[in-house]
Amino acid sequence: MEQLSWTGALGPWLNPAIGAAVLAFGIAAIAHMFVALLTAGQRLQHAPGTAARHSPLAYRLTRGGLSLALGALVVVALAYLVGGILLPPDQKGIIGYLSTRFLPVWIALGLTFALSFAFRRRLGLYGHLFDNPVGMIGLGLVLFWVFTAVFAEMIVTFDPVRDVLPGMKNRAPGTPLANPAQGQFDHYLLGGDMLARDVFSRMVAGARVVLAIAPAATLFAFMVGIVLGLPAGYLGGRFDSILSFAANLVMAFPVILLFFLLVTPEIVEMGVPAYMAAVLFLFPIIFLVILWNARYRTHPMRRNILVGLTFLIGGWLYLGLAWDADPLGLISIPDGVLIVFVSVVFVNSPTVFRIVRGLTLDIRTRDYVAAAQTRGEGAWYIMLWEILPNARGPLLVDFCLRIGYTTILLGTLGFFGLGLPPDSPDWGSSINAGRGLLQVFPFPPLVPAVAIMSLVLGLNLLADGLREESLKD
């Protein structure tokens, strides 16, 4: 069996096209930057809404050329993906096989974008993203990895942990298996790592690990920050001073040192991570109970039902997540993952607290808050149903950015071997496993590093799009 090329039968046709498109894009970008610098003064003379319309001809021409070059790049990239899917197996290259393996992701992305675009006027801030090119690109990158995590079992070609195949150690992308078993995939599409595991399968499985921890840990951190930040900003006084001092104290502590402390056997035997989880995992339940009580205090029956369901379901999840004592045996977190999860929540919570507190200090002076106070509304009702909804724009932006920060943090923890098992396919552990031979076999650490970069880039672009659209509301 032969080694796979990157482009297969598409190479003679599309490789010259992609080279020309990249060259044209580079020339157009340089020309546009040069013209933009020369005409900056002329464009600033016009009003903000009319600057583009009255820009100099050279500026508009170079901007149009840059758009055309970018469009050509996108068209050629799509040709690689679509052509790779349509080609017969014996003519596919690595890109063709990769695009075929990701077919469930492409279908899910297409359906999501089509439905979202069709109903964008009814979807609020999310729908407004489809009027923002930057936000759409960021959303596409994020959803790509989300759907990759969802369909990981359909995408992987080998077991990311158990399949260690003879002769595949540190192999180049597209290397065929010497003796593939019946029904086994024939190639390591992105090469093999130093333990002869498939790099592509570990990248895909790593997306599931990262996206199972980062968004959930960020959400828990927001629950802690909201529950403590709202009353600190609204009520002020000694309560605010104590919490602000505690937040500053945690933020001043070295993060990596904290993680090293939490994974030491002595600290684990003392139960410190478990006790931290027991406290931090209470905050979502506290948040929901206060939310229902503030909103439906004049409807006791509805309030009691919602509070009862929150205690029932939340208590069941709490026992399983915090104490590994789920009576049904369905919910649990491995010890290593629990340490990482608790560490990330603990580190992020003070920053969220400060953001929520600052927004509350500003919003509490608004007229609608004074009107709610005049109506005799309670403090928690004003905080949760008057102040918090009007702070949603900055909080959504920070939520996206914080998932990106958490992704980088998880990669750092995996790189240092903290918390997660050594054979975990998470991207940080994969980078650490391949860093020793980076100059000779770069793909084992390079592939997960690019995965981290693309996910964080998507989250940052999505945050930029949300910020721009929230300012228009």
Walk me through the structure.
It comes from Rhodovulum bhavnagarense. The chain is mainly alpha-helical. It has two domains: 1-101; 203-457, MetI-like fold. It is 71% helix and 1% strand. It has helices at residues 11-38, 40-44, 57-86, 94-101, 103-118, 124-128, 133-150, 152-155, 199-235, 237-252, 255-263, 265-270, 272-280, 283-295, 300-323, 335-363, 367-374, 379-387, 392-415, 427-434, 443-472; strands spanning 175-176, 187-188. Strands 1-2 form a two-stranded antiparallel sheet. Helix 3 (57-86) packs across helix 4, helix 10 (237-252) packs across helix 16 (335-363) and helix 19 (392-415) packs antiparallel against helix 21 (443-472). The radius of gyration is 26 Å and the shape is globular. The model is unreliable at 47-52 (pLDDT under 50).
SSE blueprint and pairings:
Blueprint: H1 11-38, H2 40-44, H3 57-86, H4 94-101, H5 103-118, H6 124-128, H7 133-150, H8 152-155, E1 175-176, E2 187-188, H9 199-235, H10 237-252, H11 255-263, H12 265-270, H13 272-280, H14 283-295, H15 300-323, H16 335-363, H17 367-374, H18 379-387, H19 392-415, H20 427-434, H21 443-472
Antiparallel strand pairs: 1-2
Please supply descriptive tags for the structure shown above:
single chain, 473 residues, mainly alpha, MetI-like fold, 2 domains, two-stranded antiparallel sheet, 21 helices
- How is the main sheet built? 2 strands, antiparallel
**Share of residues in strands:** under 5%
CATH level-1 class of the largest domain: Mainly Alpha
Q: What's the helical proportion of residues? A: over 70%
Cα radius of gyration in angstroms: 26 Å
Q: How many helical stretches? A: 21
Distance, first to last CA: 59 Å
Structural class: mainly alpha
Q: What is the approximate shape?
A: globular
Number of domains: 2
Specify the CATH architecture of the largest domain. Orthogonal Bundle
Helices and strands, in order, run as HHHHHHHHEEHHHHHHHHHHHHH
Mean pLDDT: 88
The low-confidence parts are 47-52
Q: Kindly state the number of beta strands.
A: 2
CATH fold topology of the largest domain: MetI-like fold
Physical arrangement of strands within the biggest beta sheet: 1-2
Membrane topology: Multi-pass membrane protein
Main location: membrane
Keywords: Cell membrane, Membrane, Transmembrane, Transmembrane helix, Transport
Family: Belongs to the binding-protein-dependent transport system permease family.
